[in-house]
Write a structure and sequence with these properties.
Radius of gyration of chain A: 25 Å
Mean pLDDT of chain A: 91
Largest interface: A-B, 55 and 55 residues
Structural class of chain A: alpha/beta
Number of strands of chain A: 10
Number of domains of chain A: 2
Number of helices of chain A: 20
Strand order of the largest sheet of chain A: 2-3-1-4-5
Oligomer: homodimer
Helix content of chain A: 40-55%
CATH topology of the largest domain in chain A: Rossmann fold
Chain lengths: 496, 496
Amino acid sequence: MFESAELGHQIAKDVYKKEVAKLREALLDVQFDLAESKRFPVIILIGGVDGAGKGEVANLLNEWMDPRRITTCAFGPPSEEEASRPPMWRFWRQLPPKGEIGIFFGSWYTAPIISRAYGESKDAELDNALEDIVRFERMLTDEGALLIKFWFHLSKEKQKARIHDLQKNPKTSWRVTERDLHHLKLYDKFRQISGHVIRETSTANAPWIIIEGYDANYRNLTAGSYIRDAIRKQLDNKTNGNNRSVAAPILQPIDKLHILNTLDLGKSLEKDDYTKQLEKYQRKINLLTRHPKFKDMSLVIVFEGADAAGKGGSIRRITHAVDARFYKVIPIAAPTDEERAQPYLWRFWRHIPGNGRITIFDRSWYGRVLVERVEGYCSEQDWMRAYAEINDFESQLIDNDTLIVKFWLQISQEEQLRRFEERQEISFKRFKITEEDWRNREKWDAYQIAASDMVDRTSTGHAPWTLIEANDKNYARIKILRTLVDALEDRLGNVD
Amino acid sequence: MFESAELGHQIAKDVYKKEVAKLREALLDVQFDLAESKRFPVIILIGGVDGAGKGEVANLLNEWMDPRRITTCAFGPPSEEEASRPPMWRFWRQLPPKGEIGIFFGSWYTAPIISRAYGESKDAELDNALEDIVRFERMLTDEGALLIKFWFHLSKEKQKARIHDLQKNPKTSWRVTERDLHHLKLYDKFRQISGHVIRETSTANAPWIIIEGYDANYRNLTAGSYIRDAIRKQLDNKTNGNNRSVAAPILQPIDKLHILNTLDLGKSLEKDDYTKQLEKYQRKINLLTRHPKFKDMSLVIVFEGADAAGKGGSIRRITHAVDARFYKVIPIAAPTDEERAQPYLWRFWRHIPGNGRITIFDRSWYGRVLVERVEGYCSEQDWMRAYAEINDFESQLIDNDTLIVKFWLQISQEEQLRRFEERQEISFKRFKITEEDWRNREKWDAYQIAASDMVDRTSTGHAPWTLIEANDKNYARIKILRTLVDALEDRLGNVD
């Protein structure tokens, strides 16, 4: 969830200065057009961890835009007047009218998150509150509002460093409160709860936009650019009547860093090591899948990655270790006619394993947010809502004692080219390379952004993605087998 | 919730015969067009109480339409294969493809309702299951499916009679199982739970259609006509891409009976009686609103009804009894510019009373599903989703210890005319009658249907509608005051 906001994003000072000048002009433009049109209100939620610059962003936005058409509302503990009414009343009162912008500093998310982190409420109560929030936000967007939800994030180390810096400086030490220090101690708890909240409330019309808050330049420029794009996009949408809201724009990292292009693809493994470890892990997988308790669970393994990333070879290293009666490998290509006549998840439900069985998907339901997104096979609304639908789908499997292990195999563009050319030279591998593979290569960047979004939005606590540095096949295969063994041992206990 | 399905709807045999012949032809037509277009699947859920004719309807539909393009699935206890997979798997397997019709006899609703009624699950678990269902059904309709959810209802007396009839006849007595008799004992529990389920899962795209099941002619004709209209409406909608689904048609009672035109408007009260009771109830209202515990709650009273139904006079009979510092009367007319720039519920949130206070709404948020629906001031999708939004809104008030009392004042069309004419003759009342009032009269039937739908869909256990027979003003005012006193005493204890 937060991986993309822990990469150390930053923007150099000179670049920032130049970009901000352009951004401010563009923001004033969209704000003016918004006010003229009076078509919809813009509600900006500012959430995130302490020290990530929430206040600075709110101040900057007021400075960059025309403050006469912005209302900034901070929500502390409720007043007596507010406490005697339903909790949502205070937010309703502050909603900006059509044509204007409201910045909400603290929001309807604050109380549910804090009370769960302090242990004052339970998971079920939090989930009920989140369902209420989803319905409330749906009403807002159905009514035409543009809802932008920012989450400013810091890694634990960065938050510690930030608070330490503030304390050291006599001019700022007063800003560090007891509450900040207490929250720092609860960092892991807050991280887990916020991740859950963000996942459950990221909808197609109002997704959370997670921004790394450490480098002020990156943070400010990213937030400002996103607001510019989101307002412009909704202004450009001329649909009237129903469903006036449009899918929110996806955040494009302005420094081009994402979780895939920051992987260290130089990792490799010697042949000898590889052979030894391969044997060790295959033996374990064999034992684990014959474990008596394996009969009460099932296993779903998902492989995604660029063409020629090594999915097939890795799958064979798993299947060699397992009794053929217990697994199925499902290669996912274009849907059949029968599949096309059904909701898109139907073709995967068909292959869900029963207890004691394994299904390995060579590509999967994630096609919806990869190939279908990039190639435009489905509408933007369709793939935006797919994140939530996929999380729902996987939750149902997990509730049924299915273990889900998901691999993304990452290779470099150069390595892919090398493998393509190799395949064309080796006659028995020639069938593996088609015109389409070459076409897909041209969209490399788009696929990388889509995959990075996918990992951010669907790497859940119960079904995390494992990113595999796959330029070296030996290294990749062993990491895959080891991850699988760890996940199985976690469920069934160690074998040996 | 079930009031409209307990009116004794029926269709005479000769009418039925004539109508069915036309209906069958129309059903075959839409089914053929659906199959030709292959644009969407039709999923028909058959739910409801035992003995309401669920099986007969499923059989008839197969008889009336081309059975080669219908699949009927009955869901009993899960098989071993099904039990080893997530609960939804069995339903996914049976989804009809685009162009075809699936009749689901028992559905994803069955297990949550039964297990709650048997006390195997709690309210929170039921609500979680319902949220999952709403998301699942939203996915289906987002994917373009037409989802028709029938609930066949019998009043307790009718269900008893039906089972008794079956038992008496040796040819049918075998059909009455132990389970049926057990469920009859649990009637009230099932009614309460089903009402809750239906309210929470009636969305704009997939509302429940409640049909009285006692008279077979009415039941069959209503179900068949609804299917015909729903498929035709979706076929006529040519929108492609996003949001392919359209708002479901509203059920129009084919025998023209609804909860409002079946009220006994002859009820009246003598002047003497009226004066005595007026004094008694006003005294009680005064005591109750000065009760020490009244400071920890608030009171919202809603008045709706046709023009000249007597809302203003009734409101004055309440306010005369209450300290003027503690109440506000909010007359709702067309929204102001400021209100128009906000989501539609905003103008009512403004007037929510704090603790110890009373707000009386002379017309209310129900305008969305009355005047705005009938006059076309908002789109069909907008008012269809308003039922759920209003229920959400009222739940929030109730959770905050607000008592909500809602009155619908019903007069006959003749009585309205008499009052209009009287107003025109009495100079000081002339301002009360406008051109618009005369125009509204022309849409009498449309308003009555809208009001009847409103009561069906928003009369909740915690905020029920009270229907007031208002042709006689004395009778109406006393019934209103008595209802209010009963509701307050229910909360605060008896006074006297």
